[in-house]
């Protein structure tokens, strides 16, 4: 296949998956984030990269946000929330982190393919992203031309950016205000 033949494949796949995400679930995630006194994010591999980007945008909105495992991440305390991105919902290191967050009085939110996964059973808030992945026990029934869990990871990033837009709208924080918090030691 040529580039001309495949160039919109990923875009159309992302559109299809995102259109199936329940808006009420995303609304509950935004509400849980607004209610929390701090947000911790976690994910493994490429999902972890999407979660890091989300933490950055929350920081730009003046929402205390931390990446689990970073050297400057403080202790989670009651009233804070852990937001996990995991296609399978069963990555053992992420399950352990979610169990610790719960034990320490934090809320847990999950973005996943499989709401019935071990992480799904721990989470207070679950957003289902119906993308295919060879790691997810509960497959979405769909197929992707892209390899492995690429479609989940792409949809996760778009969904998190959409959640930022929703939070901006709900809190009245403008892009200009966010830009004031952009890194300036570059």
Q: How would you describe this structure to a colleague?
A:
By secondary structure, this protein is of the alpha/beta class. The protein has a single domain (14-169), classed as 3-Layer(aba) Sandwich (Rossmann fold). Helix content is 47%, strand content 12%. The protein has 8 helices and 5 strands, in the order H-H-H-E-H-E-E-H-E-H-E-H-H. The protein has helices spanning 3-6, 9-19, 23-35, 45-60, 92-103, 118-122, 150-171, 175-179, and strands at residues 39-43, 65-67, 81-85, 107-112, 125-128. It has a 5-stranded parallel beta sheet, sandwiched between helices. The longest helix is centred in the last third of the chain and has 22 residues, at 150-171. The radius of gyration is 16 Å and the shape is globular. The mean pLDDT is 89.
């Amino acid at each position: 296949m040529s580039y001309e033949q495949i160039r919109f494949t990923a875009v159309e796949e992302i559109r299809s998956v995102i259109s199936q995400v329940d808006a009420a679930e995303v609304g509950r995630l935004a509400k849980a984030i607004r209610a929390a006194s701090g947000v911790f994010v976690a994910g493994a591999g490429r999902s972890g990269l999407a979660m890091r980007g989300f933490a950055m945008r929350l920081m730009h909105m003046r929402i205390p946000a931390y990446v689990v495992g970073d050297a400057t991440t403080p202790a989670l305390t009651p009233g804070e929330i852990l937001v996990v991105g995991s296609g399978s919902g069963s990555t053992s290191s992420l399950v352990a982190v979610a169990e610790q967050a719960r034990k320490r009085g934090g809320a847990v939110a999950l973005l996943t393919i499989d709401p019935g996964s071990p992480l799904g059973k721990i989470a207070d808030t679950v957003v289902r992203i119906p993308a295919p992945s060879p790691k997810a026990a509960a497959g979405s029934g769909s197929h992707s031309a892209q390899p492995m869990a690429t479609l989940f990871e792409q949809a996760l990033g778009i969904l998190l950016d959409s959640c930022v837009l929703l939070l901006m709208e709900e809190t009245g924080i403008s892009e200009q205000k966010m830009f004031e918090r952009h890194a300036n030691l570059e």
